[in-house]
Amino acid sequence: MESNQETVTILAIESSCDETAASVVVNGRQVLSNVISSQIDIHTLYGGVVPEIASRKHTERINQVIRKALSEAGKTLGGMDAIAVTYGPGLVGPLLIGVSAAKALSFGTGIPLIGVHHIEGHISANYIAAPDLEPPFVCLVVSGGHTHLVLVRDYGEYEILGRTQDDAAGEAFDKVAREIGLGYPGGPKIDKVSALGNPEAIRFPRGKVDGSRYDFSFSGMKSAVLNYLNTAKMKGEQICVEDVAASFQAAVVDVLVSHAMWAIDEYGLDKFALAGGVAANTALRTAMRAECEKRGTAFYCPPPILCTDNAAMIGSAAYYEYIRGVRSGYDLNAIPGLRLGQR
User: Fold this and answer.
1) Is the domain of 279 the same as that of 148?
2) What percent of the chain has pLDDT over 90?
3) Is the same domain home to 223 and 274?
């Protein structure tokens, strides 16, 4: 079909980590279905995602999830204008399951195939949550594997202002949560426990990267927590888990907020968006909203269901690729280290 048609309906597939997801999205902003099969309970047993197990579960569930997404949308595969799929970044095994399924469906039906960048998907989740949002705007993408501060110049046109130079924010949350006995997944558990603690009880360092104002570093912050815990144990001092969690979370939020506000001030934009799994963190959302309000900057953030990995965001990103005439060939492959803006 032609890219200038009035309605574009896309079947989207996401399998970059431990969620098997499929969605049907119309014109990039209307979600007809959004099916997510999570593996959190399985990986909790191991304290984190085990790639081999994730791949196996994707293989078992992907056809069921696709069928359910089409059924809930009241659509058939033949009614799709394109089939979109995450092809990177992510875990190579899980990515391959989704890419293989999408290529097979496209090849069998002749429906165009569109490969989508996972981080572009997270950014695009905001288009679903806020139909009025249009580029340009600043977006902070914060998840278990990524921390990117991005200038969204236009649909599909991004400038990375800063990124983490070591651990992603979500990865640091998981590691600290494990050390203080909260387990996996760390982000939601630290968020919950922090509500009972004093965020000013312990002053953890705010990570900086020399010579790069917008880049992030969370490894030192994580190490500071471990040093605090080890020192307290050696001295026989009582450790208040709630205070440690709240103080660590405050340090992370402080860094994320300050970097984002610097970008808003420097580029003079009146719109800011959060994205990614850590965007569901209540302290981060509250602090970002407050700082944006001080500046008269419009604040956008998807609901939690669109912050976690999902296929609706992939369908949204794919729509803007589709109308630009972007199509993928059957040589599309999983690229676990795919960088934002790379094709």
Assistant:
1) yes
2) 85
3) yes
pLDDT tens readout for residues 132-146: 999 999 999 998 788
Instruction: Decide the pairing of beta strands 9-14 and 19-26.
Output: antiparallel
Does residue 107 sit in the same domain as residue 174?
no
Answer yes or no: is 251 within a domain: yes
**Distance in angstroms (rounded) separating the CA atoms of residues 113 and 328:** 5
Whether 138 and 267 have beta carbons less than 8 Å apart is answered as: yes
* Residue 5: per-residue pLDDT: 53
- Rounded distance, CA 122 to CA 38, Å? 17
Residue 281's region, left for phi above 0, alpha for psi from -120 to 50, else beta, is beta
State which residues form the domain around 56. 9-125+307-323
Same domain, 113 and 162: no
CB 23 within 8 A of CB 34: yes
Strand partners, 158: 152
Name the nearest CA neighbour of 26 among 326, 318, 310.
318
User: What span, in angstroms and rounded, lies between the C-alpha atoms of 242 and 111?
Assistant: 52
**pLDDT at position 226 over 80:** yes
* Burial (Cβ within 10 Å: 0-12, 13-18, ≥19) of residue 241: middle
CA–CA distance, 228 with 211 (Å, rounded to integer): 28
Question: CA 281 → CA 48, 166, 276, distances in Å?
Answer: 19, 21, 10
> Would you say how long the chain is, in residues?
343
Looking up residue 178, the CATH number of its domain turns out to be 3.30.420.40
Mean pLDDT value across residues 240-246? 97
| Residue 106 and residue 153 in one domain | no
Residue 2 clears pLDDT 60, i.e. is over it? no
Same domain, 155 and 241: yes
**CA dist., res. 82 & res. 94, Å (int):** 21
Task: Name the nearest CA neighbour of 202 among 158, 253, 155, 241.
Answer: 241
- Give the residue from 86, 84, 71 showing the smallest Cα distance to 32: 71
pLDDT at 313 over 80: yes
